[in-house]
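for the writeup, i need someone to sanity check this before i put it in the appendix. the sequnce is what the collaborator sent (i think, or maybe the updated version? ugh). structure was predicted straight from it, no edits. if anything looks off just tell me and ill rerun, i have time this weekend
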Amino acid sequence: MESSTDEPPAIVRTAIDQVGKTAASGSYDRRGAAIRQIEKAAQPATAAANDYCQAARWATWQAAGVALLVNVALVVGLWRFGAVDPTAAGIQARHAERDELAAVVADLESRGGKARLMTCGEPARLCIRTDESGKDAGFGYPAKGETWRVIKGY
């Protein structure tokens, strides 16, 4: 249908010529015929635009549907393999595990779990931060007011 040049299709050229003749002759009766020809030539473009809008709306719903299906499949898959355990027994088991871990942390804190350790001195030895009321008593960083002591045996 289209030629190798950038000329409009024959029906459009005819409509344009008709509008030009109508404008030149001043005849308004021919104007209606010219407008009908232009409308006839524009019908395929209008139909294509409507099809495009409908396809865009359908694509949006398709994308939303795919996202929903992926989310459902992910939740079902995780639940199936035990990563998600929404049962009451599973929740109680997680609470019991949390309570056990909290008890272990409390025990470690009572036995020096909050102590800060680092290597210091030459050769590098394990040291612990001590509280000596800001006095520099050994290795450390007196500028920061911290004192460190080598742990016996290290």
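The chain is about 60% helix and 10% strand. The mean pLDDT is 77.
thx in advance!!
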